[in-house]
Design brief:
Blueprint lengths: L7 H24 L1 H15 L4 E7 L5 E7 L23 H9 L6 H7 L3 E3 L6 H4 L15 E3 L1 H5 L3 H6 L4 H21 L4 H17 L1
Parallel strand pairs: 3-4
Antiparallel strand pairs: 1-2
Family: Belongs to the bacterial sugar transferase family.
Keywords: Membrane, Transferase, Transmembrane, Transmembrane helix
Pfam families: Bac_transf
Length: about 210
């Protein structure tokens, strides 16, 4: 995690991180292409079109970009309920449930990484509705390039289950989960290195396979 406007060693870190992002996203898309094709075909057969889900998220410096995922919810799901999803959400398809548990729905974001809109390790980008609620201190997280995984993602790996236990999942997310995620990411950004990023990626992969 790093901003795009820092000098010295941090600037060197930024460029080495970008080189890693480009290399990893290219290798990942090539190596995982059979799996991604299988997922896409499965969604097309059982759930129809579209195979991919696109949504505007807020990235570096508050600039919007289009985030890509494999579709895991029914068509028009966004108009059928809240932005947050919980375990047992009726909008999630059978295949979508598997993709969410294994995090395979996030694989298309390797394209976002290759384009430079995201990085491997960085705070998960939020929708504008939530970003508009940030206070001045929390908006510092917008100086970080958003990523596929981060330390907050590991802490809240089972976020859907946590939210399902709340009487008002959206309020709990906005009041408790979101601020904690931001604090975790801002703290990590102060001491992030290429090695610590690689460790986070490996921890995430390990967590996926052990869940």
């Amino acid at each position: 995690m790093v901003t795009d406007d820092v000098p010295g060693s941090k600037n060197s870190f930024r460029w080495s991180k970008r080189v890693l992002d480009v290399f990893a996203s290219l290798v990942g898309m090539i190596f995982l292409s059979p799996l991604m094709a299988f997922v896409a075909i499965s969604i097309r057969i059982f759930d129809g079109r579209p195979v991919l889900f696109r949504q505007e998220r807020i990235g570096l410096h508050g600039e919007p970009f289009v985030l890509w995922k494999f579709r895991t919810m029914r068509q028009e799901a966004e108009s059928m309920g809240p932005k947050v999803t919980v375990s047992g959400d009726s909008r999630i398809t059978a295949i979508g449930n598997i993709l969410r548990k294994t995090k395979m729905d996030e694989l298309p974001q390797l394209w976002n990484v290759l384009r430079g809109e995201m990085t491997l390790v960085g705070p998960r980008p939020e929708v504008r509705e939530y970003v508009d609620l940030y206070n001045n201190e929390q908006r510092e997280v917008l100086r970080l390039v958003p990523g596929i995984t981060d330390p907050a993602s590991l802490k809240y790996f089972d976020e859907n289950s946590l939210l399902s236990q709340q009487t008002d999942p959206m309020k709990f997310y906005i009041d408790s989960v979101m601020p904690d995620k931001i604090e975790i990411n801002l703290d990590y950004a102060k001491r992030a290195t290429l090695l610590s990023d690689l460790r986070l990626v490996l921890k995430t992969i390990t967590r996926v396979f052990s869940s």
